[in-house]
What does this fold into?
Amino acid sequence: MPITKPIKTILYATDLGTQTRPVFRQAISFARAFQAKIIMLHVIAPLGSTGRAILSLYLPDKNITDVEHDSLEQVAEKMRERLDKYCQEEDDILSDRNEVIDKIAVSAGNPPDVIKHYAEKHNVDLIIMGTHASNKPSHILLGSTARTLTQHSKTPVLLVPNS
It folds into this structure.
């Protein structure tokens, strides 16, 4: 029988959609129950060659890599702002936020691959994420990222309904 290791680090993978609060509440609840830390991760899909070509037409004097880097920084700032707003609205989270939230990270790439590799690289004990991106129809059982992670991740994945 495999040995279950204690949960000390939780990766909360978020798409920053409008229906992510139940998922975040679950992550907070688990972090408190296990005295674990949360890493919040948002993954941005890469531009691809068509997107890069279009950007270079409209921004000929800009380095596209710099534009992508600036975009990641803007998303990270948006995540910090949303976390601040959420903590202000949820008084019970505000009191111990610094003890629960360890890091906010933004990365570019294919979401399931990035989440899986991030969890492995940072020795994450549990991945918590929603069952769907907020814009997916609710009749689909699982979103593509959730489905792929549950099939390929070596790290346990907890899916929380968010639709």
